[in-house]
Amino acid sequence: MTADIQLYNIFKTHFNDADATKIIDYIDAKTEKAIKDETKTFATKEDLAKLEASLIYKIVAIVLGQTALIITLLKVL
User: Fold this and answer.
1) Whole-angstrom distance, CA of residue 21 vs CA of residue 10
2) What is the largest CA-CA distance in the chain?
3) Helices within 1-77 (DSSP H only)
């Protein structure tokens, strides 16, 4: 907030009040849009839980497959 006031005062010395306000509003809008664009790609707790469940399922399948392969090789040899 303090930075907005300081920036407004700087713009006010070079522009009239309405133009300074428009510039500040434009900067705020661009900043908010950039933040929303960056944060929409964050993983949520639900996303991480789904990933964890998927990885556990795949690990169990791999371990069972390897166990079956080892048992089969031991029987053959």
Assistant:
1) 11
2) 90
3) 2-14, 17-39, 45-76
Find out whether 8 and 21 touch, Cβ atoms under 8 Å: yes
Q: Which residues contact 4 (CB under 8 A, 6 or more apart)?
A: 24, 28
pLDDT tens string 7-64: 778 888 888 888 888 888 888 899 999 888 888 888 889 999 999 999 999 999 999 9
**How many structural domains is the chain composed of?**
2
Q: Are residues 2 and 38 in the same domain?
A: yes
Q: Which domain holds residue 4?
A: 1-42
Predicted model pTM: 0.49
